[in-house]
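pls design
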């Protein structure tokens, strides 16, 4: 029996053993973005060295041994929250696209990314580790950052109230908060491969995470960043993990278009921080009214651009007050229209292109020609479509639209008396005691609004 056990043990020892793989997760130095940009710039800060580090690591372990590459991208916490969320999302997309093209041998599902939104946590860690801050200043900043009762808008306002300290943070830290953090999980197949290249050593088993310091990563810019990037949550690095709503993953990414549509969108957003737009309806300047002849209708429109969303709000005013007594011609209209628009462009280009609109208007009028006329009041409502196009990179734009709706009015017709008094009389033939003003009614359904306007954006908000 002992002899049988010995023989079996010897035979088992001669069989090839299955090699087990140890998984390691490491983080490369950050890849930074220029202010309000989403396009990878290899010459900015230490970006080229960061990507080269990832390339060397993949070459060392082999593309077939890469389990996942995951990007979390951020925007610095300044400006509008909705815009920063879009910046972070598109920066994640940009780096994910970059890595897919850099490593064609890695299946695209293994390269994922997500938006980290505004980098408040990273800012806090940099403030804690900043040797250039004295303790009272550090405590002032941390007191604001740690106040969980503040809204995003109020938090930014409190930070600006720091005055010189805020300017110091902008100069020293904020450019390092517009970044993408990339983590890579690889399989280590043998002890010979256990030492990853350079600073990429990751000790321990599958649960360990190697995190790189950014020290020395900015040699190309001449300014070393000695603050360590935070250790990422290991669970967020699993490529197959269902990601939260802000995540861009897999084929949910928009296709890359020729000419880099991401850069064009952000450039436009950078130029369009306007508060108000003003315009005038061009055809109103030369208007032909049958019976009355050629005239003009002075008009003015103002559009308010909110800080967020795709809706704008505005008002129109028309006020022709012409009268020609000798020719018995009158064109006197006082019309006020309140309206709202909903644009369809992405949020960066939110106030141009196609839109839907709805409006309400109220009008008083007195119109007459050929010794006959009408005077009254009315109200209306319309729904329609429009399109706004800018002239190049300028603030001037062309705006056109058409609306369908309903207009209701009460009015009285009048005639010229052609008598010694030369008065105008209500066109009424009944008993004087039975006369009632505004006894006539009119209801119109159909086209109620048509405009071709030229406008200009003014009161531009400060660019960030």
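designed seq:
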């Amino acid at each position: 029996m002992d002899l049988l056990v010995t023989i079996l043990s010897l035979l088992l020892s001669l069989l090839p053993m299955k090699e087990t793989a140890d998984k390691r997760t490491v983080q490369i130095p950050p890849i930074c973005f220029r202010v309000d940009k989403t396009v990878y710039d290899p010459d900015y800060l230490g970006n080229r060295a960061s990507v080269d580090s990832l390339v060397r690591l993949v070459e060392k372990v082999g593309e077939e041994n890469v389990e996942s590459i995951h990007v979390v991208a951020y925007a610095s916490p300044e400006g509008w929250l909705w815009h920063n969320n879009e910046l972070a999302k598109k920066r994640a997309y940009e780096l994910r696209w970059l890595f897919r093209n850099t490593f064609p041998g890695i299946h695209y599902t293994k390269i994922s990314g997500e938006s980290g939104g505004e980098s408040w946590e990273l800012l806090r860690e940099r403030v804690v580790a900043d040797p250039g801050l004295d303790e009272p200043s550090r405590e002032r900043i941390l007191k604001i950052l740690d106040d969980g009762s503040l809204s995003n808008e109020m938090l930014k306002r409190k930070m600006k109230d720091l005055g010189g300290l805020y300017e110091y943070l902008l100069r020293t830290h904020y450019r390092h908060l517009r970044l993408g953090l990339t983590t890579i999980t690889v399989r280590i197949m043998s002890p010979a491969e256990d030492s990853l290249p350079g600073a990429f050593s990751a000790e321990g088993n599958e649960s360990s995470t190697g995190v790189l310091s950014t020290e020395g990563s900015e040699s190309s810019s001449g300014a070393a960043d000695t603050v360590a990037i935070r250790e990422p949550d290991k669970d967020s690095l699993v490529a197959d993990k269902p990601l939260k709503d802000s995540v861009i993953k897999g084929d949910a990414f928009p296709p890359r278009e020729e000419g880099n549509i991401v850069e064009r969108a952000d450039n436009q957003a950078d130029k369009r921080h306007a508060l108000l737009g003003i315009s005038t309806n061009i055809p109103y300047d030369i208007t032909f009214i049958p019976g009355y002849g050629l005239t003009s209708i002075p008009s003015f429109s103002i559009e308010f651009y909110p800080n967020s969303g795709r809706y704008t709000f505005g008002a129109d005013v028309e006020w022709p007050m012409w009268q020609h007594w000798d020719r018995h011609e009158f064109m006197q209209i006082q019309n006020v229209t309140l309206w709202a628009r909903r644009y369809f462009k992405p949020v960066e280009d939110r106030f141009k292109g196609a839109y839907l609109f709805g409006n309400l208007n109220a009008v008083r009028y007195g119109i007459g020609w050929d010794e006959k006329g009408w005077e009254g009041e009315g109200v209306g409502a319309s729904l329609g479509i429009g399109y706004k196009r800018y002239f190049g990179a300028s603030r001037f734009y062309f705006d056109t639209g058409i609306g369908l709706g309903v207009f209701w009015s009460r009015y009285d017709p009048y005639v010229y008396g052609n008598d010694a008094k030369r008065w105008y009389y209500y066109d009424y033939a009944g008993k004087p005691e039975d006369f009632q003003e505004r006894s006539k009614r009119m209801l119109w359904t159909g086209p109620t609004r048509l405009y071709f306007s030229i406008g200009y954006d003014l009161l531009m908000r400060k660019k960030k």
